[in-house]
């Protein structure tokens, strides 16, 4: 198959979150299966050009219909670690993608509406006719709308669209101006409740809703999150639309880059290990303690090491992250945190805690992000906590499993699809269980799961080791998601 991914990110050149990892990882998996994959991306001025090889101008004069005229645009070509990418660069006084940011501008709707239009215009003008166009999140929600309302009548009637939603919290809610900008124009037609009219705000259009209505298949990034989006407030107002289109909506779990996250070949580790050499993990724990000036384990006085890696924000259950620090220390465990805050108040809160705990030999808070340290923490920690309020998929827990670091997670989204409780998951055989799960958002709930993990570590080290090894034996690579996406593509291309 010939597949074109249209997206606002592709790691490691353009990465603001998990979307970039998914676009790259899925593209790599599909190519390894023999499919032809190309990516269309915005040409941001602040993307990591050092991760792009052979960047050159491929199409100089693309005139993209825009409002009552056309915007002059260039298309550049280059390879992001082997993935063939085309970069859209509009020539405009508005500098749509030359602002030093990926997202967060007041006119983001205009920036990404233009990008969606330009991507399709590029495919149309260069006679690229993919079997499947795969687009992602609200930024490209207009792609299927434009395809089936405009470009279908200009030689692109056979293209099919798979639309993946990574985050329902951001939907691209905007005004009728987007219709005039893109040439869709007909307000009455698009403001219909079964098209783009927002379900909650009268007089507003919803670009993500447009993607759901017009795409041939829609999915989110884990099966349980798909259920949550349709039947709970996680859908952020799109529940009725998802219910109407339930026949084409589902969840496919994200994969992990198993070349980059592999304890056996990890270039950041002094002591690589695998299931057969699991005892070497203890050497990484010693190296982590040494690196962070933590107290070393002594024979007869060993302590479990609990960690948290990720953003410090409300989505990630930051109040429970804070509680986990002090609960772990109270239970005679060590705690290491690596994360950056997304709000000033949370940042100040954790700087206060860092200063307060600075002299504690069993605790280290690293506020920021450090790739090398992240790998060392995954390899050196015994337990990783992931207490998210909501989590569409989550990669932290699956990386932890690959490194034999037992996850303690809240039972939401993809966390529930990947972690199976050691004591209570009756759907799994005992040897298939790989972590600890809690469900409420309060401190006692966290303690109920983290406490059981610590109890097992102190009471039965062999059972804890077997649990960690069980996690390492799970396959959360892109292999199974690749099979599922192939199945979706085959289904929609023959419709």
What is the name of the CATH topology of the largest domain? Answer: Rossmann fold
Radius of gyration: 24 Å
Largest sheet report:
9 strands, mixed
| CATH class assignment of the largest domain | Alpha Beta
Tally of helical runs: 17
How would you characterize this protein structure?
There is one protein chain. By secondary structure, the chain is α/β, with parallel strands linked by helices. It folds into 2 domains: 269 residues, Rossmann fold (3-Layer(aba) Sandwich), CATH 3.40.50; 195 residues, 3-Layer(aba) Sandwich (Rossmann fold). The chain contains 17 helices and 17 strands. The chain is elongated and about 75 Å long. The mean pLDDT is 96.
Task: Outline the secondary-structure elements.
Layout: E1 2-6, H1 18-32, E2 36-42, E3 52-66, E4 69-80, E5 83-90, H2 108-125, E6 132-136, H3 142-149, E7 160-165, E8 173-174, H4 177-182, H5 187-190, E9 205-206, H6 207-214, E10 217-220, H7 223-231, H8 239-244, E11 249-251, H9 281-292, E12 305-309, H10 318-330, E13 334-339, H11 344-356, E14 363-367, H12 371-380, E15 383-386, H13 396-402, E16 406-410, H14 413-418, E17 436-438, H15 443-459, H16 461-472, H17 479-493
Parallel strand pairs: 1-2, 1-6, 2-5, 6-7, 7-10, 10-11, 12-13, 12-15, 13-14, 15-16, 16-17
Antiparallel strand pairs: 3-4, 4-5, 8-9
Helix pairs in contact: 2-3, 3-6, 9-12, 10-15, 15-16
């Amino acid at each position: 198959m010939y597949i074109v991914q249209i997206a606002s990110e592709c790691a490691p050149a353009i990465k603001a979150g998990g979307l970039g990892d998914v676009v790259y990882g899925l593209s790599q998996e599909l190519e390894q299966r023999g499919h032809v994959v190309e990516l269309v991306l915005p040409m941001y001025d602040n993307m990591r050009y050092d991760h792009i090889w052979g960047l050159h101008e491929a199409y100089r004069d693309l005139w993209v219909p825009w409002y009552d005229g056309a915007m002059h645009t260039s298309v550049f070509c280059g390879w992001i670690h082997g993935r063939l990418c085309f970069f859209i660069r509009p020539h405009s006084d508005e500098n749509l993608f030359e602002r030093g940011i990926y997202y967060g501008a007041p006119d983001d709707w205009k920036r990404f509406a233009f990008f969606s239009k330009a991507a399709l215009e590029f495919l149309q003008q260069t006679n690229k006719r993919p079997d499947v166009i795969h687009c992602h999140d609200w930024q490209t929600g207009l792609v299927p709308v434009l395809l089936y309302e405009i470009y279908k009548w200009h030689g692109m009637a056979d293209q099919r669209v798979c639309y993946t939603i990574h985050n329902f919290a951001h939907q691209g809610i905007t005004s009728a101006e987007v219709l005039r900008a893109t040439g869709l124009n007909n307000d009455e037609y698009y403001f219909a409740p079964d098209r783009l009219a927002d379900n909650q705000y009268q007089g507003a259009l919803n670009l993500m809703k447009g993607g759901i209505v017009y795409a041939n298949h829609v999915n989110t990034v884990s099966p349980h999150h798909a259920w949550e989006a349709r039947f709970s407030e996680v859908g952020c107002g799109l529940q009725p639309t998802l219910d109407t289109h339930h026949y084409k909506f589902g969840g496919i779990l994200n994969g992990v880059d198993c070349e980059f996250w592999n304890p056996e070949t990890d270039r950041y580790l002094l002591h690589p290990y695998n299931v057969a050499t699991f005892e070497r993990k203890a050497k990484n724990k010693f190296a982590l303690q040494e690196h962070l000036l933590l107290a070393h384990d002594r024979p007869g006085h060993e302590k479990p090491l609990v960690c948290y890696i990720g953003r410090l924000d409300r989505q990630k259950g930051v109040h429970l992250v804070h509680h986990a620090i002090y609960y772990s220390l109270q239970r005679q465990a060590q705690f290491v945190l690596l994360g950056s805050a997304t709000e000033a108040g949370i940042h100040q809160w954790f700087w206060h805690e860092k200063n307060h705990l600075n002299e504690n030999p069993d605790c280290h808070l690293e506020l920021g992000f450090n790739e090398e340290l992240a790998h060392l923490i995954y390899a050196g920690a015994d337990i990783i906590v992931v207490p998210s309020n909501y989590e569409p998929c989550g990669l932290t827990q699956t990386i932890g499993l690959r490194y034999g670091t037992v996850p303690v997670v809240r039972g939401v989204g993809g966390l529930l699809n990947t972690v199976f409780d050691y004591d209570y998951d009756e759907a799994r055989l005992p040897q298939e269980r790989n972590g600890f799960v809690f469900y409420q958002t309060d401190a006692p709930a966290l303690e109920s799961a983290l406490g059981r993990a610590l109890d097992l570590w102190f009471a039965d080290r062999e059972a804890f080791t077997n649990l960690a090894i069980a996690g390492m034996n799970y396959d959360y690579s892109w292999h199974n998601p690749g099979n599922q996406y192939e199945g979706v593509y085959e289904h929609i291309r023959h419709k």
